[in-house]
Amino acid sequence: MIEYCALASGSNGNCYYVGNENEAVLIDAGISRKQVLKRMKEVGLKIEKVKAVLISHEHSDHIRGLRVLSDLHKIDAYLTKTTQSKTRVHHQPFKVNVFEPGDVIEVGNIKVHSFAKKHDAVDPCSFRVELNGKSIGVMTDIGTACSNVKDHLQKCHAVFLESNYDEEMLLNGPYPAHLKSRVKSDHGHLSNDQAVKVVDKLKDTPLKTILLSHISADNNRPEIALKTFQVVSDRYQIFATSRYAPTEVFRLEPGSEVQEKADQLSLF
Ligand SMILES: [Zn+2]
Ligand SMILES: [Zn+2]
Predict the structure, then answer these.
(1) 0.85 surpassed by pTM
(2) How many domains, in total, are found in the chain?
(3) Residues with CB under 5 A from ligand 2 (ion)
(4) 165 in a domain, yes or no?
(5) Which of 165, 204, 212, 244 is deepest in the core (most CB within 10 A)?
């Protein structure tokens, strides 16, 4: 059995849970420990199962809660050496393990494939979490869908995929010009249109479920992101994650292709 859930997704904090019967990993710790515990409790997940927290890059919405969470719950932290050198983590978390993008990190029976991505951070990477023969991808904060993203996406059964902004909303929105260019650049974020093109091009892959992630509060709306993905809704189940609350826990049985529970934010 595989369980996955976005506890938080957006520029105010990211934290994604992927686990099996016995163990689990968190990807990113961008919300406080208190919020992690509160949100896990809300959806019936247990912190005791979490054996590792892996950090995608040093931006505070991905790392803010790491030290306290890791220290108090004795959870191993994993970050690249370069990311570690840039973080403002003054006290070491419980145990810091360094890796290089491309490394496969084994946590019990879970294999986490790390890979480099394009984003304006020192050593950004994304992850594909492999367990019980299935893969769940966590791919946010990507300026462009590089070959690594495309390659790992081919192997995913479900993916948390960045759908950060609506191009028109960003253009007419409140951000200053330099920030608009940063978001749009190849080292910024993926728009709804860019994200849907990536999955539309996939052929003969096991991907069935897409969770639209890191949805901007200023330059996007979950309804708009979901609407953009309507063109691929005959091939995929599409759901939106939220910055304010956890999604439901999605479950994938080893033999099945479709998760059992549906998220309330789905339009389809
Ligand atoms: Zn972010
Ligand atoms: Zn970032």
Answers:
(1) yes
(2) 1
(3) 59, 141
(4) yes
(5) 165
